[in-house]
Amino acid sequence: MPDVRPCVVLVRPQMGENIGAAARAMMNFGLADLRLVAPRDGWPNDKALEMSAHASSIIEHAKVVDTLQEAIADRQYSFAATARSRQLRLPCYTPMTLQPLCVNQKVAWVFGPENNGLSNEDVAYCQGIVSIPTHTDNASLNIAQSVVILGYQWFIGTCYDVHPSDVSLSEGSASAGEVEKLFLQLDAALASRHFYKTSELQPVTQRNLRTILSRAQLSSNEVKLLHGVISVLQRSN
Amino acid sequence: MPDVRPCVVLVRPQMGENIGAAARAMMNFGLADLRLVAPRDGWPNDKALEMSAHASSIIEHAKVVDTLQEAIADRQYSFAATARSRQLRLPCYTPMTLQPLCVNQKVAWVFGPENNGLSNEDVAYCQGIVSIPTHTDNASLNIAQSVVILGYQWFIGTCYDVHPSDVSLSEGSASAGEVEKLFLQLDAALASRHFYKTSELQPVTQRNLRTILSRAQLSSNEVKLLHGVISVLQRSN
Fold first, then answer.
1. Which of A10, A68, A164, B144 has the fewest CB neighbours in a 10 Å radius?
2. Mind listing the pLDDT tens digit of every residue in chain A (237 residues)?
3. CB–CB of A144/A24 below 8 Å?
4. Which stretch of DSSP H or E encloses residue A46?
5. How many angstroms separate the CA atoms of A83 and A80, rounded?
6. Letter string b/e over residues A123-146, b meaning 16 or more CB atoms within 10 A of that residue's CB
7. How many CB atoms lie within 10 A of CB A111?
8. Do A28 and B168 touch (CB under 8 A)?
9. B201 touches chain A (CB under 8 A)
């Protein structure tokens, strides 16, 4: 987790619930620095605290200021989160293309009020716009969902490099020899039942069965289980 | 937007609000097929409809069944969304590594109830697990947030290939000639004020000023504005 992480700035947020939900989303991705510009219902806000749940420390440490300028005074780059296309000439990013710009830079992600979003005056203080790609008919994401997506994209790009899929199957995996023994038991059982109709087809069928067993990525315990299954099936005859 | 898109399966969901919020998240990313397994409070559910807002059609068309098996009967691949590590031997994916598996396949994303998540029995019907990387201390994402992230990752991987950053700055951009004229006006104004202290430093300073003007990616209108600014500043002397 890098020392320098983006801060989240909510400009004139209206609903305490949304402030709390944004804090939760931040917490999920290791972000802690929340700044509020002129929250509509004042501060502190009980609903924000309640909704924040395990992220209450973010709410308690939130910095409340009167203007966006104050909120981003220490930031090198501020990015306005907005879905609306703007006449302002600013570079536009997606969460993906924004992520590299948030590494080792003091960055603010700036979100507008629920009803109208950021004003053009707000956006003019920012160095760029970040828009979350959505299905065109339904572009409206609420604040917390937008924070979730920016947080997620930042986190996987910046802090995350383990691919659990490589880990999950490795423990207790059967060796090729164990799997081959299982195949041989099955093969013998099938042969004794005259399962292989012709000697031409037999190698193909055997190969297909081997493929199934290989692809299954069995554990040693599962191999034992299947040995038992085959034995029982043979016995039941 | 591809014809074959993932469906979202909510297993024993508890709160109508969360069903509605999940539907909204689906709508944002062009997903429509919602399936509910034994919703706790029965069906239809007013709170789900209310929370779904513009995604009410997804709620109205939701398929309600008794078991997970029924819900995924027509699916080729089902993936269990879970943060908990499991003893089950199933491949684990992140939203990113899952996305390619959701192209042109009949896929279900399966989410568990709010309190306990999916049971191991539920997960055993699935072909894999999808876990959303989060900051380790705070792994709990609610259902709608998980749907948002899977939907977002699916959408940007499958449906989205325009990079708005390439578009935004192209309209109305000033030509190099326009920018050079602006520089020459500035340069002349500075020279007349004896801004360039030494003839050795002059080319370096000029180059720095040119760089600033280039990097600013000005529009034709902005060039005109700055011509006016320089003129006015000269006049005020």
1. A164
2. 888 999 999 999 999 999 999 999 999 999 999 999 999 999 999 999 999 988 999 999 999 999 999 999 998 889 999 986 666 778 889 999 999 999 888 999 999 999 999 998 899 888 889 999 998 766 678 999 999 999 999 999 998 765 545 445 556 788 888 899 999 999 998 998 888 888 888 998 898 888 888 878 888 888 999 998 888 888 755
3. yes
4. helix A46-52
5. 10
6. bebbbbbbbbbbbeebeebbbbbb
7. 28
8. no
9. no
Give every CB contact of residue A30 below 8 A, 6+ residues apart in sequence: A1, A5, A155, A159, B135
d(CA A76, CA B207): 24
**Helix B201-215 vs helix B176-192: angle between axes, to the nearest 10 degrees?**
140
Give the one of A25, A133, A217 whose C-beta lies nearest to B160's C-beta.
A133
* Look-up of token digits 């991705």: A29
- Is B28's CB within 8 Å of A1's CB? no
Other C-beta atoms closer than 10 Å to the C-beta of B180 total 15
The CA–CA distances, whole Å, from A89 to A104, A115, A126, A186, B216 equal: 25, 24, 11, 69, 10
Q: What angle do CA B201, B212, B204 make, to 5 degrees?
A: 15
**Rounded alpha-carbon distances, angstroms, from residue A227 to A184, B2, B188, B232:** 10, 44, 91, 91
CB contacts < 8 A (A, B): 116
Chain A contacts of B30, Cβ < 8 Å? 135
Distance CA(A55)–CA(A33), nearest Å, equals 11
CA–CA dist A146, B224 (Å, integer):
37
- Bridge partners of B9? B35, B110
Per CB-CB distance under 8 Å, the chain B contacts of A25 are 145
Q: What gap in Å lies between CA B209 and CA B188, rounded to an integer?
A: 13
